[in-house]
Design brief:
The protein has 298 residues and is α/β, with parallel strands linked by helices. Helices cover 49% and strands 13% of the residues. It is built from twelve helices and six strands. The chain is globular, with a radius of gyration of 20 Å.
Length: 298
């Protein structure tokens, strides 16, 4: 009788993914509870995390399509959004060079878009020109509000814009528009526009403010809300651009390098965002971004 109790590598990896993406985070940020349970069950059965998430997303797209064909718009929107949540979670462990990550993120956009089209007013997919490409996001507007203020909402290094859609809806319900963005080094902007985070990152947020102020459906009042390490970016942008009227920092730090000892994976997490291949470059980029003087935009 064998007494070997060594955990198989695949099982250890599955448990690591579950610790990084606990039920509270997944459900709290828009993933259906039943999908979280199914995701954990599938990975416990040996199905790779990304494959399991992709399967659940495909299932929800089918449900949404059936509901839409039957004329059940609210149900269809819910299923499409549930699909987007699965496609958002699925590619987390994959490197950018893995074609499965690109395919899953395309599916995320393709399911989140139809969900937004069923909202009132419809959510808009926006591309804001910057640095020879574009920073990309979703514009959510409240119904029946003329020229609402707008809050730019973003995530951090691996929790990208769609993860914060639930929080964005709280603002919309209170008459505030939301520009839910992937900035340089994040999500669609990184994967499909090849824009990475550098010392000029705050200029990208300036371009977002320009975009908001040029839209006559919106007022000129702009706030910014950063989550996780996006909290650092929000604070940094607010110190650089006086047009930002309010700033919410939900996580982050004023000195990213101080957490290297506490979180050894910090460097490996920031490298894809900054397109760095060496451990020291990200810290130099962060240092240079914090040393620039504020802008004097009117």
């Amino acid at each position: 009788m064998s007494t070997d109790t060594t955990t198989p590598p695949w099982k250890a990896e599955a448990e690591a993914h579950k610790r990084a993406m606990p039920l509270q985070r997944l459900a709290g940020n828009g993933m259906d509870y039943a999908d979280v349970v199914d995701l954990y069950r599938l990975v416990d059965d040996g199905i790779y995390w990304s494959d399991a998430g992709g399967q659940l997303g495909d299932r929800n797209v089918e449900r949404g399509t059936v509901a839409l064909q039957a004329g059940h718009r609210a149900t269809a929107a819910a299923w499409f959004r549930a699909a987007a949540a699965c496609f958002r979670v699925a590619p987390v462990p994959l490197p950018d060079r893995d074609p499965r990550k690109i395919e899953l993120y395309r599916k995320l956009i393709a399911s989140n878009g139809p969900a937004g089209e069923l909202d009132d007013p419809p959510i808009e997919h926006v591309e804001i020109p910057w640095s020879g490409a574009a920073v990309v996001g979703w514009l959510l507007r409240p119904a029946g509000v003329e020229q609402p203020p707008t809050v730019i909402v973003m995530g951090g290094f691996d929790g990208w814009r769609e993860e914060y859609h639930v929080g964005a809806t709280y603002l919309v319900a209170r008459g505030i528009a939301v520009l839910l963005m992937d900035g340089p080094g994040q999500g669609e902007t990184r994967l499909f526009q090849s824009l990475h985070m550098g010392a000029d990152v705050t200029d990208a947020y300036g371009a977002m403010i320009d975009f908001i102020r040029a839209d006559d459906r919106l007022s000129s009042v702009v706030g910014i809300w950063g989550n996780s390490m996006g909290g650092f970016l929000a604070a940094l942008a607010a110190t650089r651009d006086p047009r930002i009227a309010a700033c919410v920092v939900n996580g982050g730090t004023i000195r990213p390098s101080e957490i290297l000892d506490r979180y050894p994976r910090f460097t490996s997490k920031i490298q894809p965002s900054s397109a760095s291949t060496t451990p020291t470059t990200p810290e130099r980029q962060w240092s240079s971004s914090t040393s620039r003087p504020p802008t004097s935009s009117p």
